[in-house]
Hints:
Elements: H1 5-52
Amino acid sequence: xxxxxxxxxxxxxxxxxxxxxxxxxxxxxxxxxxxxxxxxxxxxxxxxxxxxxxxxxxxxx
Length: 61
């Protein structure tokens, strides 16, 4: 199988784009999603505790 002339020019660009996509996903998107997830959970717990009260032992009778 011979490599077509146009295909030889596309491979380095495709490899570069795959590396860029990998670095974008691992260095920017995933850490951002992790921070957003933990922050959203913390905000939800904080709002819940403002409504329901802080955790602790039940009040005495």
